[in-house]
């Protein structure tokens, strides 16, 4: 058996000793530490960490969760990582987030559905249990699809509204998708909704320098929650968001972004559309609209959320152009059937 040091971003270190053939994630959980994890089968990438030293075996995962380039750089999925020596693993989360028992099941009611475009809708749930979830802006929950035993993952697109104990989510409408079919054809206000979470290491850290936010599609959702938090607390540093979509009809919540820009002194945003047939004034991908002013000489924290091809394209762009931010936090997601 080997010892594994888990170094958390708040400076706390915990040591675990996996049993033979036990994964790091399972050993951590057995020791009372919840490394952010969701699928446990190498498919989602939630438990991605960096192995600073040591040997390990890792297989049975998909490239959307961990790219070949990331694997070469010693990034690991702890749900598939089996140590073959003592190891040091950096966990991209605060130790506070990883306290066992933090995830809870919350029973709420569907309180609103708003079709924002032919590709996107928002839904709102309400219930006095939501305050017990203690999520950080940027995190997500697994929502049980009513009438089934399956769940789908959605990032919070708001904080909990103290007036009616409600919280909102953005959802991409997928043809024949299980949750899409429920929301567009079957749902009724007042339906029971069960949420489990929160999950994820993608969340707003303490603001210590300028921030650049890069959103793709419904990857805008966590940034809406972050901006709500920033509006409450304020920021002395500039914050810029670049929001990219494929088609004009995919652009949603522009009015909310304009409201945040009016309410937050240091916040600005731009939106772009990739389609050559777009009528939107800014065309292309988010990387086409990055400029040196957004990077502050690399003294910047970059947050990136979008579908896997977009996340990989931005990561490659940063490497090819020598962009080395003070910190880089990202989350990939794929629309689920």
Automatic annotation (TrEMBL):
Write down the InterPro entries for this protein, in alphabetical order. Answer: 2Fe-2S_ferredoxin-like_sf (IPR036010), 2Fe-2S_ferredoxin-type (IPR001041), 2Fe2S_fd_BS (IPR006058), BenC-like_FAD_NAD-bd (IPR047683), Beta-grasp_dom_sf (IPR012675), Cbr1-like_FAD-bd_dom (IPR008333), FAD-bd_FR_type (IPR017927), Flavoprot_Pyr_Nucl_cyt_Rdtase (IPR001709)
CDD domains, per this entry? BenDO_FAD_NAD (cd06209), fer2 (cd00207)
Superkingdom of this entry's organism?
A: Bacteria
Q: Which Gene3D superfamilies match?
A: 3.10.20.30, Nucleotide-binding domain of ferredoxin-NADP reductase (FNR) module, Translation factors
Does the keyword Iron feature in the UniProt annotation?
Answer: yes
Any one Pfam family here would be: FAD_binding_6
Spell out the protein name for this chain: Benzoate dioxygenase, ferredoxin reductase component
Species of origin reads Marinobacter excellens LAMA 842
